[in-house]
Amino acid sequence: MKKQQTDIAVVGFALFSMFFGAGNLLFPPYLGLISGGSWLISLGGFILADVGLSLLVITAAAKCEGELDTVLCRAGNIMAKLIGIASVLCIGPLLAIPRTAATTYEMGISPIIGSTGTLAPVIVSIVFFGLTLFLTIRPSKVVDIIGKILTPALLIALAVLIIIGIISPIGGVSEKALIENSLFAEGISQGYLTMDALGAAALATVAISSISERGYNNPKDKVKLTLKAGLVAGLALTLVYGGLTYLGSTLSTAYGVDTPQASLMVVITNSLLGYPGKLVLCIIVSLACLTTAIGLTSASAKYFASISNNKIKYETVVIVVCLFSAVVSNFGVSTIIKFSAPVLEIVYPVLIALVVMTIFGEKIKNDNAFKGAGYVTLFVSLLSVLSNLLSINQIRDLLNLLPFASIGFNWILPAIVGAIIGGFIKNKSDDEKQISKYA
Questions:
Q1: Cβ(63)–Cβ(230) under 8 Å?
Q2: How many helices (H) does the chain have, and how many strands (E)?
Q3: Please, are residues 403 and 412 in contact by the beta-carbon 8 Å criterion?
Q4: Secondary-structure class of domain 2-334 per CATH
Q5: Residue 40: in which H helix or E strand, if any?
Q6: Residue 262 in contact with residue 107, Cβ under 8 Å?
Q7: C-alpha angle 341-333-57 in degrees, rounded to nearest 5
Q8: Where in the chain is the domain with CATH 1.20.1740.10?
Q9: Is 173 left (phi over 0), alpha (psi -120 to 50) or beta?
């Protein structure tokens, strides 16, 4: 029993560190800043979109042995490959992994060395992804390296900062929020941008592999231990998010909504700890981003090796991901975030809809229900993003009439309708064979 508890803790802390990366440092303090005294409301939306959805995805992935395509397959091979590849690219070399190196430079290194031209971020990205490559190339060691070594150092540094900020607040907390939009919806939107729910299925694969290597071969035991490790990670994330959001709220009387997100943590650590705060922040940012880069690189490599039936080797994908991410990281945090938002608003809702249906998959006999929900959700998400990007007010106003639109979930009712209609369409495949996968 003691061994099992230790294994759950190690895997759980490793999951926490793989989740807790660039976006998790950027967004909670900014939410606190714009929310002022109502920071708990925006924090609730953030935790729902980040921790809540991530735990849902881990649950679905654990039931499917951690295979993302298996989570999505009942919506059809085309949908599974489309959303699967899009999700892994988002959490991989296109967005999330490059953002870790960019954030390490902008929040951790730059405040110490100052502005030194364009060469410094290039050098940082080379060193950062050199370390990522070295620590990821052996997949069996990933969880132990993160869970036993890097995570404790990260948690200690974060705890020191948060406790000092609670004991000696930086400034006053504004009574009114600095934005007029729904704070809960803003929290959900910022939670999307962390990309944790997208990464959860892929990271669950890493966790399940580690659990198997620890001698747990019974499928039910692997699911149970993966879920418990997920809860450990979720609790740790919630506590840290709460602390960081509160720290941001103590700046709400001194800074405005136009404050760059990457600079907020610099302001917080300088205000609380002075110059040593820059060193503490450098440690926090570097560890948080490195552990996330390791986890996401490993997860991305496992996925692409799997869908190629290992024709493309794990090690080859790791090298390609690190090289490509090093290049993209030099575009900077703001550019990467700006590019990622519309992509995530399309992919996230489809993944969430299919994950929820997978959890209750044994009760849904017709695969066309999955297809109906998936394609309708994709259509609504595309309309939402295009209407915002192109300022098509008529479509935007129509979508805003849908239930839950005010909190960012205008796709829920269309997804339910799509699932019901799909459920009435006769399924040509062998239903019982499909259902047995989820029993």
A1: no
A2: 22, 0
A3: yes
A4: mainly alpha
A5: helix 39-47
A6: yes
A7: 45
A8: 2-334
A9: beta
pLDDT for 393-436, tens place per residue?
888 888 888 988 877 788 999 999 999 999 888 766 544 445 44
Residue 214 CA neighbour count, 13 Å, CB half? 22
Tokens of 79: 């949908």
Q: Which of 382, 403, 384, 352 is nearest to 50 (CA)?
A: 352
Tokens 């654990």, residue? Answer: 62
Which DSSP letter does residue 313 get? -
CA–CA distances in Å: residue 106 to residues 30, 96, 121, 152, 313: 16, 15, 8, 23, 33
Tokens 């129509």 — which residue?
A: 398
Using the structure block, give the residue that is written with the tokens 């106003």: 397
CB contact at 8 A, 197 and 24: no
SS3 170: coil
Asked if 47 contacts 238 with a C-beta cutoff of 8 angstroms, the reply is yes
- Please report where in the chains the tokens 């699967």 appear, as a residue: 84
Hunting for tokens 């064979």 — which residue is that? Answer: 433
Dist CA 92 CA 293 (whole Å): 9
Q: Give the model confidence (pLDDT) of 124-167 as tens digits.
A: 999 999 999 988 887 556 666 666 667 777 788 888 889 999 99
Q: Encoding tokens for residue 23?
A: 């976006």
